[in-house]
Write a structure and sequence with these properties.
single chain; Immunoglobulin-like; six-stranded mixed β-sheet; 2 domains; seven-stranded antiparallel β-sheet
Length: about 425
């Protein structure tokens, strides 16, 4: 019995630790309910989903929000969203509610619905951007008219057992808590109004709950070593090799390729790592005062486009980024004394969508970094990332002892000289 209790205690502690992200310690999704008015048998509420995560967004097919009513509430109507099931409304005569289920499940509406069904920040197919990438896109909202509920702050019972899919598992939601009513500012910013009652629900993400295997991996190479370190074998599990296809000229004509399935089942290109996404870090050039890195992101999934993708890299020299060429870049400084993490994402309307596997399923950029003579070295794998995240999930790194090593005969001055010569030759060819 003591062993069982200890195991349960460790499981609880481990689950909470897994939900903590050291690169985004304050990141969460907060669901806010604002009661805007009372009705004869309930209230009208605005439900707002705020994504306060710096680099983890909710991608297509979007969020799914569920809860359990505390009493016998029903949803008379919904604007900007809809429930997936109506439930048994047979006891109602005449006016039939939108949903009578004890445990309703709500999804966002898709773009293009009629104007009278829309609500502010709705109708994006459930896609919610990351706060660090685009705060204006990190909000989703809808309105509910709830009946058979309390008609005052003292009689309303808070829903419980909140669940959030974003779009798959991974989020764990806490209890609803009453907070000070939300204050709203009028369009002319001269008048303040407030909700009649507000409660919040906070949801945290855990990669361990989302999936048992990583969803991406990292490969490495450098100009000073001919060895290319691939992703570790079976980085993302090898159990699904039956659902992969070999990459060849016939792939584009296969039935089902590049066609999403209703269950969102992936169709991967057959690789030794079996990951949907691979990030490649290549140490490209060494200058006297700078060094240059090329980063490539490749999609091996034939049934998914990654929109609003994000790439987070932890490296000690990211405190001295001089220029990023084909991506947007934003430093992440979760701790004031440490600046070694950066977030990269696509340029709008250019490469902010990582296309499905194939000739266009790749985005890449180069990063120019200024050297710090006190820390810079090519030895002992210093030039390679410590951690890499894609869309908020940590990628599988190669073992440190396999990193491309600096040849013993190589000297920093020789490397700088050869890089300088290469640059001069390139410039002469360009001028010629």
């Amino acid at each position: 019995m003591r062993f069982v209790v200890s195991a349960l205690f460790l499981l609880v502690i481990f689950s909470y630790a897994a939900a903590f992200d050291p690169l985004d310690p304050n990141g969460n999704i907060t669901i806010r309910w604002d009661i805007m008015s009372w009705t004869p048998d309930g209230y009208v509420a605005t439900v707002t989903i705020n994504n306060f995560q710096m680099y983890r967004h909710i991608m297509s097919p979007g969020w799914t929000l569920g809860w359990t009513w505390a009493k016998k509430e029903v949803i008379w109507s919904a604007v900007g969203a809809q429930t997936t099931e109506q439930g048994d409304c047979s006891k109602f005569k005449g006016n039939i509610p939108h949903c009578c289920k004890k445990t309703p499940t709500v999804v966002d509406l898709v773009p293009g619905v009629p104007y009278n069904q829309q609500y502010q920040n709705c109708c994006k197919g459930g896609v919610v951007g990351a706060w660090g990438q685009d705060p204006s896109a990190s909000v989703s909202a809808f309105q509910l008219s709830v009946g058979m509920a309390g008609t005052s702050n003292k009689t309303v019972k808070l829903p419980r057992n909140f669940t959030l899919l974003g779009p798959g598992p991974g989020y764990t939601c806490g209890k609803a808590k009453v907070v000070p009513p939300t204050v709203f500012l009028s369009p002319d910013r001269r008048r303040k109004t407030q909700a009649l009652m507000t409660w919040n629900v906070t949801c945290a993400y855990s990669q361990l709950l989302a999936r048992k295997n990583p969803s991406c991996c990292v490969s490495l190479s450098s100009f000073y070593n001919e060895t290319i370190v691939p992703c570790p074998s079976c980085s993302c599990g090898c159990h699904n090799k039956d659902s992969c296809v070999k990459s060849n000229s016939k792939i584009l004509s296969m039935v089902g390729v590049n066609t999403p399935k209703k269950d969102n089942a992936p169709l991967l290109q057959c690789t030794h790592h079996m990951c949907p996404v691979r990030i490649h870090w290549h140490v490209k050039v060494n200058y006297k005062e700078y060094w240059r890195v090329k980063v490539s992101v490749t999609n091996f999934n034939y049934r998914m486009n990654y929109t609003l993708w994000t790439l987070v890299i932890q490296h000690p020299n990211l405190n001295n980024v001089t220029q990023v060429f084909s991506f947007d870049y934003k430093p992440l400084v979760p701790y004031e004394s440490i600046n070694d993490t950066g977030m990269f994402y696509g340029l709008k309307y250019f490469n902010d969508q990582l296309m499905e596997a194939g000739p266009f399923g790749n985005v890449q950029s180069e990063i120019l970094l200024k050297k710090d003579i006190n820390t810079f070295t090519f030895k002992e794998g210093w030039a390679f990332p410590r951690k890499v995240y894609f869309n908020g999930d940590e990628c599988q790194m190669p073992p440190p002892d396999t990193y491309p090593f600096l040849p013993n005969s190589a000297h920093q001055n020789l490397l700088s000289f050869s890089a300088l010569v290469s640059t001069l030759i390139f410039l002469l060819i360009a001028i010629w």
